[in-house]
Amino acid sequence: MSAEIAATTEFHPHSSHWGVFSAALRDGELLVRPHPGDPDPNDIIQNFPSALRHPARIAQPMVRRGWLERGPGPDRRRGRDEFVPMPWDAVLDLLGGELRRIRDSHGPGAVFGGSYGWASAGRFHHAQSQIHRFLNSAFGGYVASVNSYSSGAASVIVPHILGNYEELTKHNVTWEQVAQHSEMVLAFGGMALKNSMVAGGGISEHVERGAMQAARERGCDFVLVSPLRGDLPEEVGAEWIANIPGTDTALMLALVHTLVTEGLHDQAFLDRFTTGWPVFERYLLGEADGQSKDAKWAAPITGVAAEAIRTLARRLHGRRVLVTVAHALQRAEHGEQPVWMGAVLAAALGQIGLPGGGYGYALGAIGYYGRRANAVPGPTLSQGRNRHGNYIPVARIADMLLNPGTQYRYNGQTRTYPDIRLVYWAGGNPFHHHQDLNRLRQAFARVDTLVVHELAWTATARHADIVLPATMTLEREDIGYSSHDPLMVAMHRIAEPYGEARDDYDIFAGLSGRLGVAEAFTEGRTSREWLHHLYARTQQGLRDQGLPAPDFEEFWAAGTLRLPQGPDDGGPWRAFREDPEANPLPTPSGRIEIFSETIAGFGEASCPGHPAWLPPDEIPGAGTPLHLVANQPATRLHSQLDFGDHSIGSKRRGREVASMHPADAAARGIADGDVIRLFNDRGACLAAVRLTPEIRPGVVQLATGAWYDPEDPEDDRPLCVHGNPNVLTRDAGTSALAQGCTGQLTVVEVERFTGNLPPIRAFDPPQAR
Ligand code: PGD
Prior knowledge:
By secondary structure, the protein is an alpha/beta fold.
């Protein structure tokens, strides 16, 4: 065993967003095995062994040569320059000086610390909490980001129309109820296991496949509405309705139209539990605009035959039906509409609040939905208070950097983009998560300084001015905890840090000393002392309930602690159904808002006062005849550990794999396994192609997460040779209401790539001298 690696020859507990596991280092080789209680472990843990000591890891602090030589300032050389290695003390002095300069001459309003990203599972070394706590201590605040790339549209519209977003997604219909009660699950966008197998903070039991199987065996019918057959597991034998991407709202409208015109809707439910139905009904029946939203109208829009729509609507009547809408559908232009219309469909069926019925918005989108909540509080690192208070909707970052001082609309407000000088990122990869990456490069070229903490040479790190190497989760101690998983995990340290990598906490502690805020940031605690401190909250919660509350050392030695969970009681929806006067929803009317005075009052054409079919701007046409679905990958979480063996194993010829229908391929002379070029007027990327009939013709699918790998970084619109679809996606908000990410869907053309295949260099460290 190398002296660099700790003697962890026994298996020790650890956790990740994709599963609880244990790991050991034997003769320098990392071994991982899933938690024994997990019925359906996620193989993504198999990315760890090869990733731990991979050359893509960052070994020492680095400063971009141009920034070092010319000082801070806008520079289009970001992402093209070489790096200069620097010792820790020197780099922290340098960065400390730059932070002081920004603080003294521009203040917190010039610092973007939104730093979106999933980072790692431990609750103390949670990069977002660490960076926000640091910026609050050192600057008194920063420009933040609100909402997420996951649910940008839903999380803004839901409070207006249904109430609390967290309650809708986390305290509603559970997998237990699906297994026991649902008679039909109508899943718009499906519930792909690759998504529900991940939960922020960790997950010890992957129950979704088993629950769906149990429901199926009991006789529950599953109907999948999606251009991709794989969006529901094969085991459930779903009927597949392969609609045109982005048209679910039109399909839902036509289903409700059929229910209403055939007298199959639940008018009593609508009268008692909703507001605004009459206004919506006028639109539905065409009294408002002369166009009835019937099945015949919807057929050409959705690509689903009118009779199939009518038949499906009739099958929904008189059964315990659960309507689900995947997050993916709202990650598109007008993404608010399917969220809203799904609720209206469920309301028209009158099943909201019944066990296994109603509206399971986003069930299956992530592992902590559809589960019981823990009944004791978990460990959470306080981020302090952001006294600056300015923010942007998270997906508007490039707009903000490119257009300081300009106005935009968000949730009924007219806001102004701030003038950002310094961007500080820890625990996220905007070159994975943002859209139109060529535009993002231009945006990052505008700032004075870009600082990134990363464990590996992502494209974000390559575009930074100061790159600080962070430890990987396996190299530090932490506590794994998720609000809806009963297992709290003592995450033991499995390996020594790679090279000179440091924990984010230690980096910020070093900087806070240089900025005179060490005590405010560290409160005088070491990492181990913080774990004790954070654990105490859970221990107290257990004590308050008269339950055994092991002290920290006992918990640490045992490795896991099983926490009590709350009841599966249907949450506010059951209570609302039982007595809507006593238990109103937290909406302006206390009811489900089918028409919202508030939203109508905002006056946005892109999100009117009731759900509506709003034709998208981007549709297939001349030059870009195909839809591209850029969805979540199965063999890694987002872009994390893309260099791990499990992720690499899913690629072909080193490239990400795109799926295509054989008919579309044949029309372009493309064969299975070819390398293809996907392009539109924003950019182009290569991918290997897999031909499958399990995709709707006219649609190409390419998962996100392959690391951006420009063939010629000097080019302003380089070819990504690896297969990152975000070079193709459009950087536009869902609507003026939510301004959410629209990365799920775009339009492209595809051709067989006939040139010399460029090498993949995404995982090679950049030039350093
Ligand atoms: P990750 O790849 O998880 O992606 O975007 P996000 O930025 O979260 O990035 C996390 C980064 O943190 C990785 O680079 C990892 O190496 C680093 N990291 C891990 N642990 C640590 C740590 O302890 N410290 C530090 N400093 N770094 C660490 C995800 C986002 O992408 C999301 S949530 C969604 S849902 C969106 N989905 C889509 C989509 O459907 N379609 C498109 N086209 N685009 C999307 N982008 C969004």
